[in-house]
Amino acid sequence: MSLDKETVARIARLARLKVPEEELAPLAGELSGIFAWIEQLNEVDTNNVEPMSSVSDVTLPMRADKVTDGGIAAKVLANAPGGAVFIDPSDKNAGGFFTVPKVVE
Amino acid sequence: MAALTDLTIAQLSAALARKDASALEVADAHLKKLDEHRALNAFITETPDKAREMAQASDARRAKGEAGLLEGVPLAIKDLFCTEGVQTTAASNILKGFVPQYESTVTANLWKSGAVMVGKTNLDEFAMGSSNMTSHFGGVENPWKRKGDNRKLVPGGSSGGSAAAVAAYMVPGSTGTDTGGSIRQPAAFCGIVGLKPTYGRCSRWGVVAFSSSLDQPGPFARTVEDTALLLHAMSGHDPKDSTSAPLPVPDFAAAARNPDIRGMKVGIPKEYRVDGTSEEIVALWSKGMDMLKAAGAEPVEVSLPHTKYALPAYYIVAPAECSSNLARYDGVRFGLRVPGKDLTELYENTRGAGFGKETRRRILIGTYVLSAGYYDAYYKKAQQIRALIARDFKQAFEKCDVLLTPTAPTAAFAAGDKMDDPVTMYLNDMFTIPASMAGLPGISVPAGMDKDGLPLGLQLIGRAFDEETLLRAAAALEKAAAFGGRPAGY
Description:
The structure holds 2 protein chains of 2 kinds. Chain A is mostly helical. Chain A has helices spanning 5-14, 21-38, 73-76, and strands spanning 84-86, 96-98. The longest helix of chain A is centred in the N-terminal third of the chain and has 18 residues, at 21-38. Chain A is flat. By secondary structure, chain B is an alpha/beta fold. An 11-stranded mixed sheet of chain B has the order 1-3-2-4-6-5-10-11-9-7-8, with helices on both faces. In chain B, strand 2 (74-78), helix 4 and strand 3 form a beta-alpha-beta unit. Chains A and B meet through helix 1 and helix 2 of A and helix 10, helix 11, helix 12 and helix 13 of B.
């Protein structure tokens, strides 16, 4: 399996990862090397093998559909990198917003 | 009396109980070691004020007769565990300045037992690496050096800072996380004990996620008994982690204090004899078996036929889960933000600047194997291989109680080595990854030295949720090997 520059650019776009143009070719080389090494998995016959998504054989537990927390808007927004806007600055737990660049014209 | 920093957790607890020292004195003695050995770069954040405050509270509890299991014991915490009010970085630029507003379950359990935090340790970025060289905050130096050679060696990874801090006597114990070997391999490189519990034994709630079906918190210490004490405090069912096992916590320390392994069947997997393993490690492995045999165990040769496929399958499963988990770092809610002309550019700029090289590489691998048209060929195939690996172990454990293997194929290597080709670095985890894929508990015990005077570890692997048998075997190996090594100058 060999990945070309265009494929790396495409997956970088899917991953929302900015990769500078000059890094695309070396990355394609590295990733191709890794995938060539991974190819050995094709030696294994996996017909009729059930895929294993988790090692714990417990059934995921259900809980009552009840509100168990809330009223902590100030904590939720404490690390907002663009700063937060609060509905009521005198009661920061009443609710607020993360800020992002304008998305609607 | 021995220096407070030379004591094990069990000895410290006894000294504190006898009032030979206060928790505050114990904390101060260890904080002084953090000062002395700062050049190792084992810590990203030191928390001396918090340590003193917690130690004083511990002394107050003891005075009231309310001492917990780890009352007054200073610990270092891998900077992957969220700690309320204390910066948590995962060694990544993208989490720069992130201050959690909540405490991880595992650390909360430790503080409930009376332990004292001295700081947050360095690691590979998002726990992705085997050398600690991928940290945004620089690599950690292993306190061990080759005889007559002053080159800096790596402590292993990803929990390199936690391992180095214990090996350098800065703390008697620390926490790590192990996804493919991130506790066991650094323990081997640093000459200490490192235990990866069964997947589900310790809660993952509040631990920065890398690969959710593999990640598992666990302890480092200088003795098997101490790791058992830490595991006891860290474990337990947590409704906040749906994969946390609803099982009672056994008395792990009692198991570790009972190195009676007469009649225990120890499996030697023949597929672990692989090219590229140092001859000294192969020799130590058979010496380890002889030691267990002399202690009354019975060696059994077993076969784990899919061993060689565990590593490449891991490099599909782990990056796939990583690419999903790390999608949350978007520059909107926490961490770094690099502006852009629109929202998409803000995401791309933030993630491009925030993630280091290895993390970017793994996000790209994961995105690729999960992308349309490739899912069955890669991710599903890897999950099928994972099922076969788990079946191999199940069949092996019909014939034996624990498995004995090397922990890593080499001793600690020099900083900068194995950096040219990612696959060369990945091969470091070839003995630890199979057990991770099957969710089984594993422990690395220091068992000898190589010709350069570097510590070497042996790994024991146990049945799921049978850490007690594992600890018993580890205690027997520890007793027989009588490692006793200490890095010069520490």
